[in-house]
Amino acid sequence: VSWIKPGISTFPWWNGNVVPDTLNAPGNNFVTNQYYIDFCARNGLQFHSVVEYGLHQWYVDDGVGFQPGPNADVTKPVPGLDMKEICDYGKQHGVGIRVWVHFGALYPKLDTAFAIFEKWGLTGMMVDFMDRDDQEMVNMQTEILEKAARHKLHIQFHGAYKPTGLSRTYPNEFTREGTLNYETNKWNPEGMSPDHDINMPFTRMLAGATDYHLGGFRAVPKSKFKTQYTRPLMVGTRCHMLAMYVVLESYLQMLCDYPAAYEGEPGFEFLKNIPTTWDETIVIDAKVKEYITIARRKNNDWYVGTITNNEARQLSIPLSFLGEGNFTADIYSDADDANENPDHLIKQIKEVTKNTVINLKIASGGGQVMRLSKVISQ
């Protein structure tokens, strides 16, 4: 199972497939995908997702909107798109290539499609719009996982029912949706609220990995939120978003915004290096519907994420879970003006031990996140 390698993926559908104006190549083509692959390579990200552009699939389809037509064919890219060329380019730069596919277009050609996908060099895919949980659909999802494994493909189920443990049998299932999430910020006039986010660790996440469209990097106060299908906005602070990568477990995490939204922005250096699998998890403090602090360990490093609902609050985090010795803490906290400017944060670096207590001042819809790295004695 050495081919099963979780990680972080782009997902340009969410941001509206944004590319620089100077690129002059919008749409599903090599140049657009090259731009995102280069972004992944520069920043050590594991995957790029080839998705639909607007409501136009990357594969031949005569359907309307997202719904596949009678001649939809996931084995035939649209004219001008060479999937093997994209996969080869990704491989040369250490970036795995994934695709989005509609279940209704994939399933009738499952065996043929998976064989071709493997030949192209794909690493996996998001399978979307199943929208059922009857026995037939359960059987079909199991079949998808089993056959995908034969072709060394990982699966992300979207528009799917909550986890039931299939990932224990088929570890190539990296994550699944089964919850309302940030994708709705593209059309929901209210925006996804931190009041909703805080319920996830206590409810949906108990069932397993949670696909949540993480990564929006343009937060505004609730009063200024509006729907935008391209470059969607977020409600909740940037530190809230950073902490969600620790609070929510998913073996495949998204960076769903566009490259220029990240590079050079405070906090992106944290996301570039966030693990997606963990060796140990501890809930430090939590209150249903209000706040939660979770610590997760990967090798010798600890990551601690705290999110709150729409109420500002002060909390204390004892670091008694740490082992002996000194640790370097990279701490990202809401700035003092985060209620008005939710993208603002403060980064601190300090040395801590298991006797240290970190005091938090969290904005409305805010959060805090930290990485604790063991100091190695010379």
Describe the structure.
It is a single chain. This protein has 378 residues and is of the alpha/beta class. The protein folds into two domains: 7-277, Alpha-Beta Barrel (TIM Barrel), CATH 3.20.20; 281-374, Golgi alpha-mannosidase II (Immunoglobulin-like, Sandwich). 22% of the residues lie in helices and 27% in strands. It is built from eleven helices and 19 strands. The chain has helices at residues 12-15, 30-43, 83-92, 103-106, 110-120, 135-150, 166-169, 194-197, 238-247, 259-262, 268-271, and strands at residues 7-10, 47-50, 59-60, 73-77, 96-102, 124-128, 154-157, 173-176, 219-220, 234-235, 252-255, 280-287, 291-298, 301-308, 313-318, 327-334, 345-352, 357-362, 367-374. Strand 6, helix 6 (135-150) and strand 7 (154-157) form a beta-alpha-beta unit. The longest helix has 16 residues, at 135-150.
List keywords for this structure.
alpha/beta, globular, single chain, five-stranded parallel sheet, 378 residues, six-stranded antiparallel sheet, Immunoglobulin-like
Q: Topology of this structure?
A:
Blueprint: E1 7-10, H1 12-15, H2 30-43, E2 47-50, E3 59-60, E4 73-77, H3 83-92, E5 96-102, H4 103-106, H5 110-120, E6 124-128, H6 135-150, E7 154-157, H7 166-169, E8 173-176, H8 194-197, E9 219-220, E10 234-235, H9 238-247, E11 252-255, H10 259-262, H11 268-271, E12 280-287, E13 291-298, E14 301-308, E15 313-318, E16 327-334, E17 345-352, E18 357-362, E19 367-374
Parallel strand pairs: 1-11, 2-5, 5-6, 6-7, 7-8, 9-10
Antiparallel strand pairs: 3-4, 12-13, 13-14, 14-19, 15-18, 16-17, 16-19
